[in-house]
Design a protein that fits this description.
The chain is of the alpha/beta class and about 290 residues long. Strand 9, helix 7 and strand 10 form a beta-alpha-beta unit. The chain has an 8-stranded mixed β-sheet with strand order 3-4-2-5-1-8-9-10, with helices on both faces. It has a two-stranded antiparallel ribbon with strand order 6-7. Helix 1 packs across helix 8, helix 1 packs across helix 9 and helix 2 runs antiparallel to helix 3. The protein has 10 helices and 10 strands.
């Protein structure tokens, strides 16, 4: 199962999108809230049920003890998102000042998340928050870069607005370069489009020279409930965001599978090149929801 990290150039709905994908997954799923600027789900969807004694920050001390301690702490700090416990959350930081303590924890956490995906069969989503750059590179403290480097897919969340595209242009090349030089490859990078604004999926992909791997509708009532909390909106379980998140999760899995196939069998072999070309053509023709 893939590990998918979500980031943005500015607030574009990363947390709501990551939560929707986690809740909509057809398999056991996990959301790791790893935004160095702090988590919002604890006070939002969880309505304060998970206090500061739970969450990401406590993994830093465990990691310094050793891998086994980290594994135990990770399991102890997961919070159920549904009655069955099939969908779980690692709550984020309660104070952005805690981010510095996690700098050496990110690589070990990346290993744990890969185990959850590859061996435990979970769909793993990472809310990595807003990208922070320093001298044209990913900031070592304000961005959980090691998590992005190990992810199977890295999604830059954008909206179909001129402002969102303008902001994304400033970060997409440094992100692509970082994934090429230190991650699993620049082909891990894709876009997740929030359909808010005049630009359609194919226009967004062309503008940023990056494929739109999935799209989610602009559903402010549901997104607000997921991140801020309160009373669920009417028809929450059938809301556009959750309905189309199921389709988006399937599209992301297909993209991760195509990428894995490409890595295992480079398209230098003519017969495989034909297979990959057909897969990509079918994806393009099928498009994202409104593409």
């Amino acid at each position: 199962m893939p590990v998918t990290a979500l980031v943005s150039a500015k607030s574009c709905g990363v947390t709501a999108a990551a939560l929707a994908l986690t809740l909509a997954s057809k398999r056991p799923s996990l959301l790791a809230e790893c935004d160095p600027a702090g988590g919002t789900i604890r006070a939002g969807l969880l309505a304060g049920q998970a206090n500061a004694g739970f969450g990401l920050y406590h993994l830093a001390r465990a990691e310094r003890t050793g891998p086994e301690a980290l594994a135990h702490a990770f399991a102890a700090h997961l919070w159920p998102l549904d009655p069955s416990g099939h969908r779980r959350l690692l709550p984020g930081l309660t104070d952005p000042a805690q981010a510095a303590a996690l700098t050496r924890t990110w690589p070990a956490l990346a290993d744990v998340l890969q185990v959850m995906a590859q061996q435990a069969g979970h769909d793993v989503f990472i809310d990595a928050g807003r990208l922070a750059l320093e001298a044209g590179h990913l900031h070592p403290t304000l961005t959980p870069a090691p998590l992005l480097y190990r992810a199977d897919l890295v999604l830059l969340v954008v909206r179909g607005t001129d402002q969102s595209l303008a902001l994304a242009r400033h970060v997409i090349q440094p992100l692509r370069t970082a994934l090429h030089e230190q991650g699993s490859g620049s082909d891990a990078l894709g876009l997740l489009l929030i359909e808010d604004g005049a630009h359609r999926a194919h226009q967004v992909g062309e503008a940023l020279q990056t494929p739109v791997l999935a799209a989610l509708p602009h559903d402010p009532d549901t997104a607000n409930y997921l991140t801020v909390g309160g009373r669920p909106p009417r028809g929450y379980g059938r809301s556009p965001l959750l309905r189309y998140a199921r389709t988006a999760a399937e599209q992301l899995e297909a993209a991760a599978n195509r990428r894995q196939l490409h890595q295992q069998y480079p398209p230098a072999a003519p017969q495989l090149a034909g297979i990959l070309q057909r897969l990509n053509q079918q994806q393009t023709e099928g498009g994202v929801r409104h593409g």
